Amino acid sequence: MSLQETVLMQLRDLVLRGEFEPGQRLAEQQLAERLGASRTPVRAALVTLEQEGLVEANETGGYVVRPFTAQEVHDAIAVRGLLEGMAARLVAEHGVSRQLQGDLQACLDEGDRVLAANPLTLESYAAYTAMNDRFHALILTASGNRALQRAVALNNRLPFAPASAMLPMQGSVALDRDWMLYAHRQHHMLLAAMKRGEGTRAQALAEEHTQVAQENMRLALERRAEAEHTLPGIRLVVG
Fold first, then answer.
1. pTM (predicted TM-score)
2. 8, 125, 179, 215: which sits with the fewest CB atoms below 10 Å from its CB?
3. Domains of the chain
4. If we measure between CA atoms, which residue out of 170, 155, 158, 162 comes closest to residue 213?
5. Contact partners, residue 198, CB within 8 Å, separation at least 6
6. pLDDT at 160 over 80
């Protein structure tokens, strides 16, 4: 795992755990010192977190932590499920090419390899996140629907909507691994349905896939009983 990836995961972890207040300014130099890195990977990480909807740019060109509500997270995940369900149906109806099948199978094999480790490490999470991103991106691209792709890109700017927002929940590594194993089994079933040309089945599986994130959000909220209207930091596993 590169230094930039490490800094991204560490900074994302700090934001999600509520180490910063909603609206708090994130100073590059202070973050660099805290993470033991230079400002360059910190700056790149902040750009990525803005794309994920966790921070937002302010009028000075810096970044602040974005406040968000439980309903906003729920809605964003629900919309992603509908959009990715449509993408999976289109791929099934178009037919899975040999190249696409090989690329998706490589993702499944990588996920199987990563999740064979017990317990999972920070490197395991990073590897699974990269695989998960690629799996979902391949299906979206293969759908061939540019409007759908733009809609997903727009929705991904909301908190926890992107597949890349997948992270372990603080203090529950064993549970995280169980959720990730379940989500990855769904990946296997989704590819099988698309290969068989089962559009309706593929759509339903893709939509159901995001229920992992919804359930995990519910568990996160239960663990953070003090969170009422805003969630300065929660840990979600987003399939």
1. 0.78
2. 215
3. 3-65 (1.10.10.10), 70-223 (1.20.120.530)
4. 162
5. 92
6. no
